[in-house]
């Protein structure tokens, strides 16, 4: 089964965002089935021992007394560098209270993903995969940083597949502001949950900020932290363009 239209993802996203609490309708279930039917070339395996990276803003402050705080130049503890159910919020691939582990393929991408600014102090964790993992890779769906597909008429089945996978990669990688409604996450959360239910260990998607790749591990214990260091951001470069 292939996708019905090159706009299948936008239709799925509109329905699920508007009615996040309702059961999926037939079209939405068929869309998910089409992901499974067209993902064979998107399966990627990472071996145990592969290194990945995770960054978090800040470092711990140690309070010696109510009136005295010791600011030590140390990174967060290994435990603090992983999310927990109590404090986890909605993310691209997870719902609140059910955390996933968001990591990057390289240290630079991990730091970029926290939207740094000059003088920001960052705890950077180096993690190692503890077993062989199988991912669905959305990141190779297009070579362009801009959404590349638009058709006036329905294209061939192959072109429809390329367009829908590129749209999903765009949805996973595009940054969501804190002011945006939580429903913005719903379509990619449903896709992630579906992929997890089919026995996959995570997903891969492009960074919208740099050229790197991000990994989502559904199981927090599939990677262990082996090192954590403290960094300070010294320079940030912004590109911008006039809209009107």
TrEMBL record:
Sequence ranges assigned to domain RES in this UniProt record: 78-228
Top-rank lineage group of the source organism: Bacteria
SMART domains named among the record's database cross-references: RES
InterPro entries attached to this UniProt entry: RES_dom
Stated name of the protein: RES family NAD+ phosphorylase
Species of provenance: Pseudoalteromonas neustonica
